[in-house]
Amino acid sequence: VTLISSMREKLYIPRNADIMFRDPGPEVIEMMQQGLENEDSDVSLSYAGALLEAYPNESLPMILQRVRTLDHKTADQMLRLISLPGPEHVPELESLMQKSDAHLRATILDIVLAVDASDRENKIRMALDSDNPRLVASAIHATYIYAVNGLVADAYLHWKRLLQGDINHLMASLRLLPIVSHLDLSKRHSM
User: Which residues lie below 8 Å from residue 57, measured CB to CB, with a gap of 6+?
Assistant: First the structure.
């Protein structure tokens, strides 16, 4: 009993845990939102994952709101839990991007480029010209994954620059390893 009480206190396990297995309703969502708002980032992340799994449509606005109150590292982890939001959430994500660190900006850019094809080429072009190596790597990745043929030559040049840069540039370029197969053989060898 003491162990369960301690776990309930530390992990924010609700007293009436069976509530989570009932049909979704305001009581369930409210209880899980309290967990999402927990000060402990691990608890908050756990509840975000549970909310997204159980109530993806209802939970996304709550999670995007919670992300605004978190430190950049935890916000990045929470956003990575979201598989792909609908395009209606793109403006909120782009707004959040303006107030984020380099790592979180790249995560948000990846999500936005995946769900919103309407201005994809322009967004990739802007990210390619960024001084943030993570954004550049995200843009290069998107160029090849989404076959933005008009930017392939530029993306390739930026990729080579990343490989010739400092440690931050090299670290950012690591995420591009899985797409090396998109390059023709002569370009692979010239890198």
Answer: none
